[in-house]
C-alpha cells in the first residue's frame, strides 16, 4: 500500500499593534516587529502551492503579501478566525487578573462554563475550526499549503491531530510567528494518517 503526502504549514501571526493581550476577534494589524517576525519565519521558502488565511488583518495582510510573491491568490477562510473572548478582548492577562484574580483559572479549568460575557464557547470554536480543517485537507490534498492563522486556531488543530482532549487546548505554547508542520499520509484504500512533523520552528530551520 503506497502513500502520498499532504503538507500543511500553520503559521501564527506576528506581534500585533498593542503587543501581547487577549485579542480574540479584535482586528488589530501587525506591528512593524510583527512583520519582521513573519518574514523571518518563512525565510526563503517558496514551496507553497496555496496560501489560506484567517480574515483578520493581522493574518490576512501578511498572507496577501506572501501570496503576491508566490504568484498565487490568498484564500480567506472565516472558519480559521480566532476564538472570540467577549468582554476580555483587548485586555492583557495582568489587567484581567487585577480585575478578577480567579477568572483565568476558572476559564482554563472549564472554558465553556466560565467563558466571559459575549465570548464564543470553546466547544463552538473547536467545532468551527475542525470543520474548516477537514475541508482544507480535502481541498488541498497532495499539495503543500500555508495556513496563516492564530494561536487558538493552531491549538484547536493540534488537539484534533494528536487526539487530545479539547480541555487540554491551552496546555502548550504557540509563540508569535511560530510555524507548525502537519503531514497527512494518504493511502490507496482511501485512509489517511496525520503526523506532527515539527512545532515551534522557523520554516527554514
Description:
The chain is an alpha/beta fold and 205 residues long. The chain has a single domain (3-84, 121-201), classed as Phosphoglycerate mutase-like (Rossmann fold, 3-Layer(aba) Sandwich), CATH 3.40.50. The chain is 34% helix and 20% strand. It is built from six helices and six strands, in the order E-H-E-H-E-H-H-H-E-H-E-E. The chain has a six-stranded mixed sheet with strand order 3-2-4-1-5-6, with helices on both faces. Helix 2 (57-70) links the parallel strand 2 and strand 3. Helix 5 (122-139) packs across helix 6.
Regarding quaternary structure, what we see is single chain
CATH fold field value: Rossmann fold
CATH class: Alpha Beta
Q: Looking at this structure, what is the CATH superfamily? A: Phosphoglycerate mutase-like
Poorly predicted regions: none
Query: What is the overall number of helices?
Result: 6
How many individual domains?
A: 1
Task: Tell me how many strands there are.
Answer: 6
Amino acid at each position: 500500500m503506497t502513500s502520498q503526502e499532504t503538507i500543511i504549514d500553520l503559521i501564527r501571526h506576528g506581534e500585533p499593534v498593542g503587543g501581547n493581550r487577549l485579542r480574540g476577534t479584535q482586528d488589530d494589524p501587525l506591528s512593524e516587529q510583527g512583520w519582521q517576525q513573519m518574514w523571518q519565519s518563512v525565510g526563503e521558502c517558496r514551496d507553497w502551492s496555496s496560501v489560506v488565511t484567517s480574515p483578520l488583518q493581522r493574518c490576512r495582510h501578511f498572507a496577501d503579501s506572501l501570496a503576491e510573491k508566490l504568484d498565487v491568490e490568498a484564500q480567506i477562510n472565516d472558519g480559521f478566525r480566532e476564538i472570540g473572548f467577549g468582554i476580555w478582548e483587548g485586555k492583557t492577562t495582568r489587567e484581567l487578573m487585577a480585575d478578577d484574580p480567579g477568572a483565568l483559572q476558572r476559564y482554563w479549568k472549564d472554558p465553556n462554563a466560565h467563558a466571559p460575557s459575549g465570548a464564543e464557547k470553546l466547544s463552538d470554536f473547536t467545532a468551527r475550526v475542525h470543520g474548516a480543517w477537514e475541508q482544507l485537507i480535502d481541498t488541498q490534498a497532495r499539495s503543500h499549503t500555508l495556513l496563516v492563522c492564530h494561536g487558538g486556531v493552531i491549538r484547536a488543530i493540534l488537539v484534533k491531530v494528536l487526539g487530545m482532549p479539547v480541555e487540554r487546548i491551552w496546555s502548550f505554547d504557540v509563540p508569535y510567528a511560530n510555524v507548525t508542520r502537519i503531514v497527512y499520509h494518504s493511502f490507496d484504500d482511501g485512509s489517511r494518517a496525520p503526523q506532527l512533523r515539527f512545532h515551534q520552528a522557523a520554516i527554514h530551520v
